[in-house]
Structures are given as structure tokens and as C-alpha cells.
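Subject: mismatched residue count in predicted assembly?

I count 638 residues in my input, but I want to confirm that the predicted structure covers every chain. Input:
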Amino acid sequence: MAVYTEVGDAELEVFLAEYDIGEADAFKGIAEGVENSNYLLTTTRGQYIVTLYEKRVDPDDLPFFLALMDHLSQRGINCPQPIHGRDGQALRRLAGKPAAITSFLHGMWPRRIAVKHCGPVGAALAGLHLAGQDFKMTRPNALSVAGWRPLFEASRSGADELGHGLARELEAELDVLEAEWPKVLPSGVIHADLFNDNVFFLHDRLSGLIDFYFACNDAFAYDVAICLNAWCFEPDRAFNATKARALLQAYEKTRPLEPAERKALPLLARGAALRFLLTRLYDWIHTPANALVKRKDPLEYLAYLRFHRSATSLADYGL
Amino acid sequence: MAVYTEVGDAELEVFLAEYDIGEADAFKGIAEGVENSNYLLTTTRGQYIVTLYEKRVDPDDLPFFLALMDHLSQRGINCPQPIHGRDGQALRRLAGKPAAITSFLHGMWPRRIAVKHCGPVGAALAGLHLAGQDFKMTRPNALSVAGWRPLFEASRSGADELGHGLARELEAELDVLEAEWPKVLPSGVIHADLFNDNVFFLHDRLSGLIDFYFACNDAFAYDVAICLNAWCFEPDRAFNATKARALLQAYEKTRPLEPAERKALPLLARGAALRFLLTRLYDWIHTPANALVKRKDPLEYLAYLRFHRSATSLADYGL
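Triage response: the counts match. Full output below for your records.
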């Protein structure tokens, strides 16, 4: 939840004058998205989302994100569609921050993940991978294997405070992943953060995907591995193979995994677990205790990581 | 800003089944209201606000607040109108908390207060006072003069850490206010918290008043005094008599102040400043540093208090 930047009514009026979407009728900060400030804008024409990009987003990446959402929307993916101003621009400034208006997506993200959600997520992820194939811009994944060791080094001192022996375990894990990380797998644009709060459902049907601000170019199967972490563990941290089977089978109906991808999946899932463990660990150590953001427990992902380490084939994932 | 309680999709569905307002289409936590969790609900029929009452609100007071909003709505005041379920009830439970649905008010609260806002606020406040006159329920003001000393005693130890000599200054102030607080002034239902984030404007017209969860029975002029504090000081803490004049003149067009009220106003304004100073001081001292709520600076109100102490008549307020 986050509203970091307050927007004055006068500056909002000036900002909206660049668009053809009517006049502001209501403008409410919403508890959505961790990295940016989001407002729900109601105008005489309808509902929109106004996003102010805060310091964790590199302004140089914004043209990629906005063009990607344009591209995916044109290919029928239900994602926020950037609204372009009269000058054709989707990106401008508001309250001193880069800002954009996107379409409003109906639906709610599932607070409690059930098996029924996992199939639609797998199908939507595969659809996203196919729809992004002819997208021309690229953005490397800064949070893939090469980015993990620097993240670990920046958090090493705090790791053992969180769990005895954690630093040594993570370092050994890094050694394995760096040595064995697959280099040639089918790749393209991935979402890279498809957690339950980024997927909307309406009447049990998936109605939209949001928050493309980690999207990048990487192996499709790594995106699948992220979803296995995000959707298939229970609150007690146990893996639910039924959820994984639903997710993977639905994914494969739209985009079958190649043999190399299936073989790599347990390792990719370890990597994905480590990636979220490391960013949470970093935030845990570097977020001031009085910050407005609630820190997430890194050790949740240690449990996930250990599960994936014990897995040897797709049979462990319900297939 | 606040969303303290997460609502599951399944429990929301059960909750909404009690109402005739269509099915949920979107449900977003909004950064509005400090005391409760608020969600913007979009249904197939329109937009609504769902409020979950958190621990700072006494559940026994909720029938008063909801009946008051019903009463005021019926008298043409633009305030959130409680939506009643098929059983006639406006108050039920959601996610383990007392909860209610109210109508959605269009407009935005002014982030930067200008003179043009102050007249409409004065007029709306007077309209509210008149509209509440035949409301039958009553609720004493727990945060009036009798409540201030206990609040001060609970915060005394921290006062001097915040400002040298603060405890002594506040105690002297309390002595004066307790001795001189007027006992017989025209009274009725007051809003008691009409700050700028509780007043919506649309195209420079006041479009609604929200957040009646401090409403109570007290002197009308005390509500005016609260507004003088809330609307008429500049960011540099200087009093703006032009704003005060606009507010008071507009108030008096609808409900002229009686001589006793005019005479009491500087003292009531001191009391109002002390009331917000004390609650902020209490929160400052008792809010854990890692809380999700941003603490507000109590010393802002010390500056206001000192101004009112120096005032002798309504001439100091622009009249």
C-alpha cells in the first residue's frame, strides 16, 4: 500500500488538461502497488488509474513499460492500457514525478489463493509470453542470477541476525545457481512479478494483469518458476502440488514447455525463491524501522527455496 | 491513509449479498480516513465506500454516526449516506470488524487551502448545524474541556522532550480553559473534525462533507473554532485573517452567531487548538516508531494556540 506523493488539485487540473478523458470528479489514493503512488481517478468519462513513479523505478525504463502495456493491450491482454494525451505522449510529469494515466481494470485480486485461481494464472502467463514475442524493445533482467550476489553482499551482515547459518546457506546456494543457471532457454518479455495482488478476478474468471514494472527480457520458464513460488505455497509454507499442476497444465495448453525448460524448472524455481528472499532480506535490513512500508518476512522464501532444492523433476510439481 | 484490515473476496461476496447494490466489480483500499479502513467498491450499479471500523471507534457509537448521516442526507446535506441492507440494517460485520457501506461522494479535498474554499466551508458548517437540530440521538463530546486534562496527564512525561517548557505551558493553558470555558452556548450536533481532507470540492464548489466519526453534541461555536484552526493557518503557521473572515461571514449568512458566541470565540479557538495539540501529543508519544501511521507534529498547534491566546476579539479574526 502506498501513496508517497500528494497531488494538488490545481496541478491535477493542469495535468488532465493534456488529455481527452473529461474532468476530474474524484481522485483517491489507493493501496495498490508497493513501488509507486497510485490514484483512482474518476472523471465524467469513466475510471482511470494515475500512477506517479517513485524513486525505485528508473525513469529510463518507463518508455519500455508503457510501450509494453500498449503492445499487450493491442494484442488482447487485459492489462492497464496507457492513456495518451493530445500530444500522443503517455508519460509526463505530475507533482514533480514522472506520471502516467492507464485504463481501470475491473476485478479484485484474490486474498486467499485457491486451486481455481492457478489454472487461469498459468493460462494468462502463457498468453502474455506469446503476446510479447513481437515486442521490439528490450530490458535486461537486473534481478536475475548476475544481480543476486551483489544483493547478497549488501545484506550479508544482517543475514545471520535473521537466521543462524543463513548467510552460509545463501552463499552455497548462490554458488550452485551461478554454476548451473541455464543460458539457452526460450526467452522473451516476462512479467517477473506475477503475485496474487497483480492478478484480478471477476466471478472466478481472470479479468486482468497489472503492475508491469518488473517486466524484462528473460527465460519464459523463469516467469513460470516465479509463479510457482507466488501461487503454490500454503500459508504454512508447504508446497501444494495440486495448485502447481493446475498452473503448469494450463500454461502448457497455451504454450507447451520444451524439454530443456521442464528439466530446468526446479533449478529456476530455486533461483526465483532466492531472488525474492534476497530482495526481502535487503529491504528487511535497509528499511528504517519507522518506514511506512510493512517489511515482508524473508524466511518465507527460505522455506520455498529448501523445497525446490529437494525437488528433482516435474513430478515434484504435480506433473 | 489506512487499510488496516484485509477483506477476503469470499467474505466480501457474502457481505454484499445482504444488499441490493449489485455485484462487486472492483474493491480497492483507499488512503482516506485515519481511524478506519476504507475501500472503494465499484459494483454493477455504481461506486460505494465500504468502511471497516477499527479499534479507535467505539462500536456503541456507530448507531449514532450512521443515523446522523441518514438524518443529514435526508435534509439535503451532501454527506455519505448509509446504504441499508435488505433487512433494513446499515451496520453489520465484515472481516471480523463492524462495517457499513455508504454512498460515494464526488469531488476532491483541497490539498492547498485557498481563501475561495473558506466561505463554502463556513456555509456548509452552518447548514450542518441547522440540519442536525432535530436529530434525536445524542453523543457527548469526549474530547471537550473535561477530556483534556486526562489526555495531558497521559502525555506529560513526553511533552518536555518535544519542546522545552511545553508541559508547564499546557498546564497553565488547561487551568485557564477549565476555569473560563463557557457553559451555556447554542448547542447541537457538531462535526468536530472538519479538516480539509474531510471536505470535497468539485469545480470550486463544495460537493460534500465526510468523516462524521467525531460528531457529537457540543456548542456550535466550538465547531466554528475548530474550523478556524483547520482552515485559516498558513503552512508557515501564520494566521490568515482573510480566510477567517470568509469562513465566518459565510457561516453567519446561514446561522448568525449570537453575542455570547462571538465573545467566546477566541477562547473556544484556544480550546480547539489545545484539543488537537493534545491528541497529537498523545499519538506522538504512544505511537510506536515503526507504526504504519505517520505521526503529525503537535507543535503546529502550539503556534495556533499562542495566536488565539493573543487574540482579544473577533477583530483579530477579520471581522
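Residues 1 and 32 of chain B are 5 Å apart (CA to CA). Marking this ticket as 'not a bug'.
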